[in-house]
UniProtKB/TrEMBL annotation, chains A, B:
Pfam families, sorted: TetR_C_33, TetR_N
Keywords: DNA-binding, Transcription, Transcription regulation
InterPro entries per the UniProt record, alphabetical: Homeodomain-like_sf, HTH-type_Tx_Regulator, HTH_TetR, MT1864/Rv1816-like_C, Tet_transcr_reg_TetR-rel_C_sf
Domain of life: Bacteria
Ranges annotated as DNA-binding: 35-54
Domain HTH tetR-type intervals: 12-72
GO molecular function: DNA binding
UniProt-recorded name of the protein: Putative TetR family transcriptional regulator
Length: 201, 201
DNA sequence: GTGAATTACCTAACACTGTTAGCAAAATTA
DNA sequence: TAATTTTGCTAACAGTGTTAGGTAATTCAC
């Protein structure tokens, strides 16, 4: 039954076409500019065809969210692998996170923008758990190495994420700031050093 | 010429009515649900009347942004005033910031949400400068007290803001997290302690 | 090969957005 | 009282997400 397969393949092709076109629009005009009608126009299909492949607009965005988390966790895992010392690992993770956010502004904005309030990302995107484990592990190691039983790793994980996410959002959202990239990197590095020192007691 | 004055007063009244109604909607249904037509319906005027008082929807949101920054900076200034020690001041500021964000979720979301990318807030809202000075001053004091000339206060200010803004956004946006308020406070306190310790060398 | 069933796809609409042009009625001024 | 300004409205434009319903092509069973 080659026909059914071909049909499935064609369906997949249209689906990918939708995603590719949508992504192009996002990259060129931002999330705000993305519209079902524009996608339909661009792929030369009528509007309802898109709804044959995605339940609604949110579903398309969610797809990109998944992609984003996939890329991010991969990058973070790679960065971590390059070091053995947990402190160095944390710094490398922070650096990779930072890099990802600025090399993939569109992804980052979607991943941590308004979308989060709409859908419970944790259930839909399992990569978020991967991210947590990735960061928590070196934190736990440092805490163990320094015999710190007064704090738990979960708390520290949140602090870690807050520092870096806060920095990224401020830099991403606040267009008016006139700080150079080098200074930004220094801020991140300084914050990370402080965080790790505080872990070590 | 009492007539002209009365007219001006009436204009002001309608303007306030628009803002009050809009605020009520935002509080009850969130920013997303706010629409010019709904406001017009609620105040029992036609749609174009709203455009006599505000250039566009953005202008209404900006008004709330201004209000939000006004309240925030006031709260922060009050918190700072209660202490003399710059470290204690920073902690108090962080605490007040935290409190504001969660007692005024709507304001915070607007202030640091998508709005920022749309308009250059710094030029439109002078309070942002007040906020920066408020935080920078105790930071500079601590740095001076410990004879630290290797870092500048501006960098540290960004770190401070990042930590707290990151924490708030993660807590505000990520609905899926099951962390209790007490733990959240501990995270903030821990991060602040780390930040200040890192300031002191 | 022919008829039935399925699939693919489109047109057109619904119910919303923000925004504005143009007009009628009311209020103020001369 | 007549002219002018102000006030507020209706109705439209150009978008948005979403869906109901119908047509034409394709595939399947006989």
């Amino acid at each position: 039954m080659g026909i059914a397969e071909r049909k499935l393949r064609q369906r997949e092709e249209v689906r990918n076409l939708i995603l590719e076109t949508a992504w192009e629009m996002v990259r060129e005009e931002g999330w705000q500019a993305l519209s079902i009608r524009k996608i339909a126009d661009a792929i030369e299909y009528s509007v309802p065809v898109i709804y044959d492949h995605f339940e609604n607009k949110e579903a398309i965005l969610l797809e990109f969210g998944k992609q984003g988390f996939g890329i991010l966790t991969k990058k973070l895992a790679q960065a971590k692998k390059k070091h053995d010392d947990p402190g160095a690992q944390l710094k490398a993770i922070a650096d990779a996170y930072w890099q990802f956010a600025f090399n993939n502004k569109e992804y980052y904005q979607l991943m941590f923008g308004l979308n989060m309030q709409a859908c419970e990302t944790e259930k839909v995107i399992p990569e978020r758990g991967t991210f947590r484990r990735l960061v928590s592990e070196p934190i736990e190691k440092i805490l163990n190495n320094h015999h710190r039983t007064d704090v738990n790793a979960c708390m520290k994980y949140h602090t870690f994420w807050s520092i870096i996410h806060g920095l990224v959002s401020i830099k991403t959202l606040a267009t008016g700031t006139e700080i150079s990239d080098e200074v930004n990197k220094m801020v991140l590095d300084d914050a990370m050093t402080g965080f790790i020192k505080n872990l070590e007691r």
